[in-house]
UniProtKB/TrEMBL annotation:
Coiled-coil ranges from the UniProt annotation: none
PANTHER family: POLYGALACTURONASE 1 BETA-LIKE PROTEIN 2 (PTHR31458)
Keyword terms, alphabetized: Apoplast, Cell wall, Glycoprotein, Secreted, Signal
Pfam families, sorted: BURP
Protein name as catalogued: BURP domain-containing protein
Principal location: secreted
Amino acid sequence: MKRWASATIVGPPKRSRTSRNHRTVGKSLRGYISRNKGGSSGFRKLTLLKKRVTSSKLLFSTGELLELKRIFHSQNKSSGERVLVYALSECERNPSIGKTKRCVGSIEDMIDFVVSVLGHNATVRMTENINGSNWNVMIGKVKGINDGEVTKSVSCHESLYPYLLHYCNSVPKVRVYVSDIVDVEVFKVKSLSSH
């Protein structure tokens, strides 16, 4: 069986039919294993988080949109302008009730946010790679973190922006699962040959 990736799946404590269904071993689905690449926005993204001393000097607010558009060469009503507006408004939006969130542009800020929510004894889990993205994939082995019981978790997702930016959030009372994501075609061949 070709293992494309291992992903952490975060689900609500009350298991909905959909989320339970997608955590089932053998469940086939169209894979979208995402790591933003900059897309069609015209931005060429830097691949590393900046140091705090650098990221703290960068403009980052809707009040500075005109200057940001000038710096990143974004025309009015362009995809570049839409990327800037969306990221800034998401980062400035108040969190939902019970949720904690922060946009981070430096690894130090990310670590500080994680420690503020989880404490110093945290385990890092991430998608290993994006192989299999847009292919038919299947959920392989699924393991519940904390034996599948409700726990604390922080998720950081890469946001589309001219430089590397992560949207980090913590929702209270979640169940966290780690799952292998496998290639359906290779699994079918191995399944047939083993009968």
